[in-house]
Each structure stands twice: as structure tokens, then as C-alpha cells.
Design goal:
Layout (H helix, E strand, L loop, with lengths): L1 H39 L9 E7 L2 E2 L3 E3 L6 E2 L1 H13 L1 E7 L5 H6 L5 E2 L7 H4 L3 E2 L4 E3 L1 E6 L15 E5 L3 H6 L6 E5 L2 H9 L5 E5 H9 L5 E4 L6 E3 L2 E2 L4 H16 L2 H10 L15
Parallel strand pairs: 1-5, 1-6, 10-11, 10-12
Antiparallel strand pairs: 2-3, 3-4, 7-15, 8-14, 9-12, 9-13
Helix pairs in contact: 2-8, 2-9
Length: 283
Amino acid sequence: MLRTVKVIVVMLVVLALAVAGCGGQQAKDTKDSKQTSAQTGGGQQPTGKQKILVASDTAYAPFEFQDPNTGKYVGFDMELIQAIAEVNNWDYEIRSMNFDGIVPALQSASVDLAISAMTITDKRKEQVNFSLPYYQSGQCVAVKASNNTIKGFDDLAGKKIGVQIATTGADEARKIPGAKITDYNTINEAFMALKNGNVDAVVNDYPVTFYFIQQGNKDVKIVGDLRTSEFYGIAVPKSKPDILEKVNSALKTLKENGKYAEIYKKWFGKEPPEFLPGEPPAK
């Protein structure tokens, strides 16, 4: 009898260990599944909504930046992607990264799209697909307010110029004869270098530079005319044409129902150009 009881006890212990092992493995599998879904994006959520991973350089006010009080990402681009997600019934997650890392992330499809004040260029179109244009911009020159010698692009030859890495501002600055270019990871670093006297000027997108000055940085000014006319687009991996189609369809919807104009006026204080979002009129 005693032997029989011992055998039963041993069998119960073995059975308990087996069940625990299966439960632990199931928990691990569930955890791994969640991690994979978060990493690859495009997954289906318990809500039935598609999960979209969105890359953005979240240090580029007023398009994308972190609210110091709430810690949330805010800005024109952030409200636009929220509106696009609502139209498409998407859940979305912002993946903050340096601007020069966005195109590689799109090429590897580790994100589903990127909204980051990204100018549509022929070079970038070889690497990713772009949505309809949703903003018109241009490059400007910023100098210290006390600087009266630099009055525009024509005065930058041989000067020290700060730019954000991998931007069209950096491309434009490198066309200037004899200019000494310093690339910074964020535009705020370039602005700080200007204020500290490490560079003579900063070449950057006009709305971002204007917004920076309006935030109390009156020791900086914009000089001269805009050098370029550029259009921002939402970038999508070439392997995700379905995402691109839904983005463009949503942009058209937001234009028709007035939501795009509402967001634009909130951040820029004026009506958007009539053709946006959309292709510019032929010259």
C-alpha cells in the first residue's frame, strides 16, 4: 500500500511539472508573438484594426515634436497621421528615430510608413514610394540677429554652415562654393551651434526655422529669399503598395471633408494652398 501511494505521488509530481512546462512555453510563445507583431507592424490587433508602425524624426517642430508637459508627440504631421489612421480604421505607433535612419527603416520594411516633413526627391523616389504631396516648403538661411554681413544664400560662400544630416537643406548647402558644412543629428543641434557661434548660418526648411524663432529665439533671424520650392510626402516601403493606396485615399478624404485644412490652419495660421493635398499645378 505504501509503495502504491509513493508511485501515485511521483506520477502526480511529474504530471504537474509537465503542465507547468507547457504553460511556461505557451507564455513564452505568446510573448514572442507580441514582440514580433510590434517589430514587423501591419499586424491585426484584438480590436480588429490593422497596426501600423510610423517612423518620424520627432525633433522637428512644428511638424513633429514632443510636448514637454505631456510627453506626447504633437505637431502638424502628428495630427495628420492621426486623421489618416482614423479614416483607415488603423491603430498606429510612432517610432521616433534620427532622420537619416528613416529611409533605411522603410527599405527594410521594419516600419510601414514615415511622416517626417520629408521632401519628395528623385533620389528618394528610387528608394521608397511617396504619397501625394501634403505640404509646400523651401530652404532658407538663418543667422544670428546681430549678423549684418550675411543677407542670403549669395553671401554664404566660404562660410561655416550648419545643417541637419541627410536633409535637402544639407544638399543645398553643399552646392555653395567653399562652404564648410557641419552635419548635425537634429536641427535643434544646428540652431544651438548657430547661437553659440560655432557656425555662421543654418540652411533649413523655412517653416521649421520660422517656428524656432517664434518660440522665443529672437537672437536668430531669417535672411534673404527661399532658395527652393519643395513638397513633403508620406514615404512608404516599395513592398507595401496597399499602404500607399490607403494613405492617398485618406488624404483625398481629409481634403474633401475639410479636416486637412483645419489641421493646417491650426499649425500655420492660414489656409493651405488650394491644390494640397495633391500635385502642384503645372507651370
